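The pair is quoted verbatim below.
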Amino acid sequence: MTAVPTDTSALAAQDLSIGYGGHAIVDGISLAIARREVVCPPGGSGCGKSTLLRGLAGLEPLQAGTVRFLGEPSTAPHPRAALVFQQASLLPWLDVRGNVGYALDWLARWLHARWLHASPARAPD
């Protein structure tokens, strides 16, 4: 992990601030992660590791800063990104079929939105 984002990074963040109730948990973080690089942020319990990861993944709103994934601005979860949580992250009120269906529905909506916003040259036949 390098300190300054570059255009060739798989994931880059600049001056990130993430917090709750006006209190910054993560403040002023910049990083760049290369393609195929594995990153595991160290730190004690409650220091902001999970908050940082959720912000980078688009699961938490940013108070400040920018995130780029594969060279494009990222403000929401992306289907080509993966985040492994410490605990099971299934929706407990859904059964297995419901949890898988939820993910597939989200993916279908993302693909549909991407297709709608594609330029005519990139639109499928």
